[in-house]
Amino acid sequence: MSFEILFLVIYFVAMAGIGVWAMKRGKQDAEGFLLGGRSLGPGVTALRLQSSSMSGYMFIGAGSMGYTQGYFSMWYALGDLGGGILNLSVLGRRMRKLSQILGSITSIEYLEHRYPSKWIRLIAAPVALFCMFFYVLAQFIAGGRGLEMVSGVSFPVALAIAIGVIVLYTFLGGYLAVAYTDFVQAIIMVVGMVWILVATLMAVGGFTKGNEAVGEINPNLLTMWGADLGYQGQWGVILGALLVFSIGYMGWPHVVVSHMAMKKPSVARTAGVYSLIFNLLFIPGPYLVGMFALILLPNLANPETAIFEVADAVLPTFAVGIVMAAIMAAIMSTADALLLQAGTIASQDIYARFINRKMNDAQMVWVSRITVLALAIIGYAIAAFDPPAVAAVVIFSTTVLGSAFVPSYICAVWWKKANAVGAISSMIAGTLVSVLWQVSGAPDATGIDPMVTGILASTAAMIIGSLASQKSHPVPEHIGRALDETAKIGPIPKKMLIDQDALLASQAEMAGRHE
Amino acid sequence: MSELVLRTLVDGQDAQRILAAKAPGLAVTSAKLRHHPFAGFVFEVPQLAGRIAQAHALVDYYSGKAFVTDPWQVQDAQAGQRMDLVADPKWNTIDFDTARERAKALLSTAVLRRARLAWRGGIRETSSVAKVWKPNWVIEAKLEGKSYRIMVDGLNGGYFFIGS
């Protein structure tokens, strides 16, 4: 067994052991169990938030894009940074406020509350599950690639081990959560990424010399138009690259509705700003390391292993183990969150809504377990022998989610005439157009990204569907009232904006305006 | 028990201090305590490793929004005085049974996220309160020549702008 593998095994066994011991011996109450983390400051909270959203894409896909396309990959990084800003902006504020007034817990429930029709959930839940499956698949592949590199076993075997570990973590993660917090994980991730970045910059002689050396290999990589300048003037592709992680990001189910606990809110709001700072520091890193890998390792057989190979080349042996732990931590955290969310959608949005309306919580757990195991088996069957590129899978799933849901989310708060027919049309059109555009090869033929056509199609369908059905499917009166209240959001003094507690939105409306 | 009032943990002075700390120069012209109705539920929640504990949930009657909360601190009976209750706007209101469903759905989702799939379920409602009145401050204030209405949470000091 290599030192890296040994380190990984010791690390996770130790964490699991501490978790089980703490769970059996500790005195944590239910409130602590459910409302955990209230005493953490905004910096720590920001790290926890980011660690669960940073995925294997950052270590596998982003490095690969930097390696193959140079600074072109920064369009994706810029969009990624924009997603956080959009979420903190007026757009995010209105969506959060409406979700409070409508009393929604999950994003699909929010859509059904805003556009009252069972068809909303019947369409939205499978589309969300479909996209989440692909995102989970990307995490599986990323984990498999990492283990393949450090252990030397074949990819199908490494993939099976990686999926096994991820599924095990999804079952037993509650035990680990006591000791193995998101915060510890985030620290390891940040240390690992920064360590690779600094060691890489030192190995290539600094940022400027690194760029000069990359320019000598291929000067096109220093432009933002791709390795062969193939994206110069291709604004349809560039717009898609910018949109996918900014607008597309807003389609992810966890982004719209996530608040469950009534607790002191200021930390969470301030954490949003810290998260943005964290992203500014962290997001460009993997792309840069991938690009500088061209200097250190110019003949990589698989660019997806660029960051692993660079780590192996520039870090001392023990540090490679830490970095591997960081990467596996990122992958497991994201995959675990996605699998649980997929289980929740399958159990609450499909099984409880359409099959067994009297589902109890034990049945909910079983439906979730079966869903997770099914996704793992299908994922292995797809990825074991002809694995797609991680970056392509992540971008594809985010594109479809964004195309399917973003117009419905945005029109939900900004357009009073948006109704259930428009939303259903929009979700179907966005999903079909983005998927068909991608699989038909149209992006290469036209130079237009599926994110662009998907969003255009779903927006057009929303407008046409809503306007054509105003008489047959009018927006219910209580939704109109909720939208009137949602629209009253400003102006707010800037210094008081960040810490505002959206959980009070509905209480404030009712108490403040209905006297 | 069919009704209780939560103790006001953030008094009027505290509410003003919280806002002033965020925006020095903000002058409060009035502060009115209003009570908002929630349905309250207490559950027995199985955790991992065979442990069972209590969890509290409140569901807003006027929005249907459910929250996991700390154990409630109830106002003393003799401290009870005439309350300014938020009236039912009657366009977004849910009933008690719907509130119960929302509370259970929230609890099971929240526990599953924490305990993951090793959890076996088995949440049991042990008690409920038809009306839990939660205190909030409605504050009128001025800052740089503009007037604002702000709500300050009477339990935790969070705030939200009602309008200007």
Automatic annotation (TrEMBL), chain A:
The gene is opuE. It is a multi-pass membrane protein. Its main location: membrane. It comes from Glutamicibacter nicotianae. It comes from the Bacteria. It catalyses: L-proline(in) + Na(+)(in) = L-proline(out) + Na(+)(out). This is Sodium/proline symporter. Keywords: Amino-acid transport, Cell membrane, Ion transport, Membrane, Sodium, Sodium transport, Symport, Transmembrane, Transmembrane helix, Transport. The keyword 4Fe-4S does not apply. It is found in: Cell membrane. Catalyzes the sodium-dependent uptake of extracellular L-proline. Belongs to the sodium:solute symporter (SSF) (TC 2.A.21) family.
UniProtKB/TrEMBL annotation, chain B:
It comes from the Bacteria. This is PepSY domain-containing protein. It comes from Glutamicibacter nicotianae.
